[in-house]
Amino acid sequence: MPAAGSTPLPRPPGAAGLRVSDLLASCAAAELISRPPHVPEPADARTADEHDEAA
């Protein structure tokens, strides 16, 4: 509890009108568009039986 006669500390300035959920969503969107597209791995020509035999 603050002492009598003391003034409360000023609040630090924040992003005016920006919700945290909006900020997180914009960061996630920026990360998605800044990464190169995922290149699919080449298909393995061997069958599951061949994998079992190799093991």
Descriptive report:
Residues 41-55 have a biased composition (Basic and acidic residues). Residues 31-55 are annotated as: Disordered. There is one protein chain. This protein is mainly alpha-helical and 55 residues long. It is built from 2 helices and no strands. The protein has helices at 20-34, 48-54. The chain starts with 19 loop residues before the first helix and ends with a helix.
Chain-wise SSE layout:
Elements: H1 20-34, H2 48-54
Briefly, what is this?
This protein has 55 residues and is mainly α.
Spans of 5+ residues with little confidence (pLDDT < 50)? Answer: none
Order of helices and strands: HH
Please report the distance between the alpha carbons of the first and last residues: 70 Å
* Major beta sheet summary: none
Number of strands: 0
Rg, Å, rounded? 28 Å
- State the secondary-structure class: mainly alpha
What coarse outline follows from CA principal-axis ratios?
Answer: rod-shaped
Helix share of residues?
40-55%
Tally the helices. 2
Region (Disordered): 31-55
Biased composition (Basic and acidic residues): 41-55
